[in-house]
Amino acid sequence: MINIDAQNHVKGKSIYLDDVQELQGTLYALPFDATVAHAKITNLDVSLALKSKGIVTILTAKDIPGENQIGGIIPDEPLFADGEVHFRGQVIALIVGTSEHHCIQARKLIRVDFEELPVITDPREAQKQNKLIIPPRSFRLGNTADAWAQCDHVFEGRSDVNGQEHLYIETQGAYSRPKEDGSIVVSSSTQSPTAVQRTISRVLDIPMHKVEVDTVRLGGGFGGKEDQATPWGVMVALATQILHKPVKLSMHRMDDMRMTGKRHPYSADFKIGLTKDLKILAYEVTHFQNAGAAADLSPAVMERTLFHSTNAYYVPNVSATAYSCKTNLPPNTAFRGFGGPQGKFAIEAAIVKAAESLGISPAAIQKANLVVDGSELSYGQILTQTEAHATWTACMENYDYASQKKRVADFNQTNTRFKKGLAVQPICFGISFTNTMMNQARALVHIYYDGSVVVSTGAVEMGQGVNTKLVQVVTDTFGIDASRVRIESTNTLRVANTSPTAASAGADLNGKALQIACNNLLERLKPLANAEVDPQEISIMEEWVYRKGVKTDMRWTDLIMVAFTKRIALTENAHYATPVIHFDKTKEKGHPFAYHVYGTSIFEVTVDCLKGTYDFDSVNIVHDFGKSMNHTIDNGQIEGGLVQGIGWMTLEEIVYNEQGRLLSNALSTYKVPDIYSVPKEINIKHHDTQGHELAIKKSKAVGEPPLMYGLGAYFAIRDAIKAFNPGVELAVNAPYTPEKVLMDLYRQ
Ligand code: MTE
Ligand code: HPA
Ligand code: MOS
């Protein structure tokens, strides 16, 4: 089934935040933010700006009736800075006026005096000064201290990986309107309508039932709207509460880039020990996460880094520690992979370092250590239905890696200006929110008596195709045509207490809840088809009722009318909570993931050794989709995730100066992959298995895992540099921008 949004997207008919019809009298809001990264606010004067043309009000911390607090995990982040600022881009005030233009003019007239304080941007420095968001955590398996003596080879090193701008095409925004009795409705471009609702309730000091949050779809989220869509929704709601007017905020790109957090940069120290047959016996790693100035989702992101610290490898002795370091940068946040990619990057760096020191291919070490059924990970989960070896082998054989390797070696023998590099990148990614409590969802289904169906769940459509998968759940369960099914906007009045659409679990959680609702309805409908027969004999296919597989003369629409006339409920509300999973934080052990997703990719790159530029010749993938319920959408997720991962590893370079000022603050200074940076060939082979019971229709979650194939881009480039400049000692420091490649090509 093609994506149900495809037609409207192409025709420009799809509704995003900025397309929501504006009410007459709508006002516009613009945040005013800090121009220094750490300071006391000694004076704030908005009087001149207030007098500026078209300005209705300027809101600051003192206008907040409830708590000036938006921190989700830890209450450490004010909506409006009060007394001090902790990062450049922190919002101090909200300007509300009759047009955006007037607000922009007024913003220039606000006067603030700062008494500047020392700025920290480096996570290692923050850790030294004990500036931590939460105490450090460690995951341990076996005993690394005892294991080193049994290792034939031990290597130590450091890896650094930078952040990443989400660059959702639709910037952050929200539009708030007053309802009766002080109630408010907010359209929000958020992955988490409930987080927006709860935070509005907290800041405005009104109960959650007075706040309706509605989300039609996002023009991309990628994690950037899991937590950081919330403040904008709260700001417009506050303005609506005070002014009793509709208020809209739609962020300008540079404001968005400056004010919002990004993927977390990490720095890591590692130590890896191997036996002579290349088994990794011990791995120690210390991660320094650059959290920025407030917690946001950093503690959860840090936890997922620890969960994925050994990627797809079984290591019997592991000690992984992580520090969430508080710096004077915008709070970093969720981004596709949620700390997992950074955890994997460090062990891949360790493996590459070991391989180069031993003069062998990293793939030899990777292959020798892939997880198998029964492998225990550092957090105690014992793997079943592993596909690490199977996807590896299928990848090697299907794409004839042996010949590719030979061809690349021959090329490098005969070429000096251009060198090719190869990297194999296996992945293993845990599916479920790491916080067990969040793994729940609800679905509300109405069948109208004309036979059409409307569905509400907690899932937010952000381009990943979850709504199409939800339609498929309905059509497959009811045996009706997709044209009968409509997925409504995500709305906190219809479905309450939702988890964000995140952790790649949107389709699984909401799809399972929907499946339960549809099955319950079906069980009520079947006996109505024929009172004389066992309901088990009844089925519906292609809009017709069947008995024992034989078509009857009753249609779906007839059956629904019978149900209605017999006063049978045609509405169902169902709840799903992932079974099996649990995790004990006091022991750092448990079974946090419903299942894991596996896959293997092979990267081939050509580096121009004169210019330092590169082109990816091919990326060949064998991916574990389980039993994919939608190959087109799932392939789209692989391609999009892969290219986003390649961008992170190659071109996208976030630069803050020492004063915490974002230098890569626009698309002219922050390079994202374009069509020319997409690999010349992306081949995706579906590794079809029996799938997993806890995946919706056995079709495994696909949203985040493919991003991690992108790590291979970094190591393929490094392989090519090594072909040009053998024996050189190279740091591991992503992204590999052409400038850095050029320097490494000629490094002595
Ligand atoms: N794909 C598109 N087109 N746009 C997005 O914003 N977000 C990714 C992934 N794929 C995203 C996307 C992220 S970070 C997650 S967690 C999942 O989609 C969320 O959706 P799912 O749980 O339905 O897979
Ligand atoms: N993944 C993504 N988002 C999250 C998670 C997670 O594990 N936990 C909380 N938010
Ligand atoms: Mo995705 S980072 O879990 O929103």
Topology:
Blueprint (H helix, E strand, L loop, with lengths): L5 H6 L15 E7 L5 E7 L1 H5 L3 E5 L24 E2 L5 E7 L2 H8 L3 E6 L6 H6 L8 E5 L2 H4 L5 E9 L11 E6 L5 E5 L4 H12 L6 E5 L14 H14 L3 E4 L2 H7 L6 E9 L5 E13 L5 H10 L9 E10 L13 H19 L3 H7 L19 H11 L2 H14 L3 E14 L8 E8 L5 E5 L8 H13 L6 E3 L2 E2 L14 H24 L8 E4 L2 E4 L2 E6 H10 L5 E7 L4 E3 L4 E3 L3 E14 L5 E13 L4 H19 L31 E8 L22 H14 L7 E3 L3 H8 L3
Parallel strand pairs: 1-12, 8-30, 10-11, 14-15, 18-19, 28-29
Antiparallel strand pairs: 1-5, 2-4, 2-6, 3-5, 7-15, 8-13, 9-10, 9-12, 11-20, 13-14, 16-27, 17-18, 17-24, 21-22, 22-23, 25-26, 27-28
Helix pairs in contact: 6-7, 9-10, 10-11, 14-15, 15-16
Bound molecules: ligand MTE, hypoxanthine and dioxothiomolybdenum(VI) ion (MOS).
The site of dioxothiomolybdenum(VI) ion (MOS) has 10 residues, from loops.
